[in-house]
Amino acid sequence: MKHLRNTEGPDSPRGLYGTLSKCRPHFLGFGIFSGLLNLLFIVPMLYMLQVYDRVIPTRGGGTLLVLTAVLLGGLAALATIDLIRSRLLVRASLRLERELAGPLLRATLAKTDGTLDAIARQPMRDFDTLRQTLTGPTLLALCDAPWAPIYIIIAAVIHPLLALLVLVGGAALCAMAWLNGRSTGSALRGATEAAHRAYASQEQVVAGAENVRALGMCNAMVRRQVRERASMLAVQTRVSFLSGGYLAGSKFLRLTLQSLALGLGAWLAINNKISAGAIFAASFLAGRALQPIEQLLTAWPSLARATTAYRKLSVLLDSVTPSGAPTALPDPTGRVHVEQVTVGRSAATRILTNVNLILEPGEVVTVVGPSGAGKSTLMRIIAGGLVPDGGLVRIDGAKLSDWDTDRIGAFIGYLPQSISLFAGTVKENIARFASDCDPMIIDRQVVAAARGAMAHDMILRLPNGYDTMLGWEGEGLSAGQSQKIGLARALFRDPPVLLFDEPNAHLDAEGDAQLLRTIAAAKARGASTVIIAHRLSVLSVSDKILVLRDGRVEAFAARDEVIAHAQKPSLQVDAAMVAKKAVNQ
Fold it and tell me: Fewer beta carbons within 10 angstroms: which end of the chain, N or C?
């Protein structure tokens, strides 16, 4: 496993190698039992040797009985050790799952800078590839291969020519394994990446199947998927042809050497150099010495995929700052400061530039501006879903990075444009899948949040009320129903910070009026609220307006002040002019 080691070392609290080293006792035990197993494989050979050299010439029935008893005992021990060895691998697999599945999922969720696809397109698939390689047949070949020299030494005891034949054959197989790795290594990596791209594209198309049908894109998408799969299969076919040639050659070489060892043993026996029983021993030793090397050749693609997976997972884990245990800060009151926030590493990709915002408890700020102004990006940054390239966000004076992610998330009610409801019951989605207190308390909090979102009656009309099971993305609900449940989720446990991105996009006039009452109630209890809305009826409950244009703050002041200056050319607040009527209604 040396080639899988990373630069952080085994004692790194964060490195992948450091985590894998926790399974060292399992792998060490596996190695020890593999050694015992290989030693016990000699028992059948010794039995054959003694039968031909001692029992048959002397016609010793008693000797045969004793030898058979020893053979049965050795085979029973071999089977027992093999069982223990396989269970060690199963336990190692479970330990890897327990140690790495959670950190990898957290690291995947923590990658908020948009670089996840370049680092690891499918981290859990990569992890399963690595885990299966470390606990499967590939590891068996790796542990059996070092015992080839032992069989060569035993062959040398029988006769040096036998050892020389096996040694030359083993060297030839090793050379073929090296050539196989050199010629197929880059092709294997390309095949793996091509497969990931094809599967990711297919999942995306399936997820948007409804839109694909509605837009008449079925045939076009099928053709596109077929082309992508053809590209993937072309790379995989090239790898299979290359690897298949080496596998066929290695199998031919091993069988030839094993047969030659039998022939050489017969020639030596004819010339009275070895006994008759040693003829079969020679073939057996050649097979045992060469078989692990051939298995390594067969397992090379798996080993190459595991190495690639290891590197990607290691980069993913190392790129995430260790969570640690930050100091528990007091519950926030809702004071939000956005300081010089910039998103975009260059002018060409700049989404936000030096945005500042101050939000006090009980204030409502409405963010307006044309499409593409950066409004939703700003909301994602305040919510902690996106890390800015410059600047920072403070909640009650503390940077977002000073808070435990789940803890600060509990004090933020976020309703994004994409509601992102998850597979589970309506109650579980509203409760954010919480299980940290008495279920009865959670039930009361869920109902209170639904009432606050004016969603309680709507939920009761669902087939199973709050226990109605939803599919991914709220499958089974209309857009308006999903938005109400998303709003209830945002209001769960009365968070002091509320962030609503287009909360009335799918609401009718009655629902819009209910939303205004919800915002007014949150304002009355001291919650600070940021709203993005194109339907500007929400300005009637707003205290301030933030105008964004091309990622920059064009105006940020009291509502009436911004509206009063809306007609100034320097501001060009098109939305605010429309809002006058909404405010005066």
Answer: C
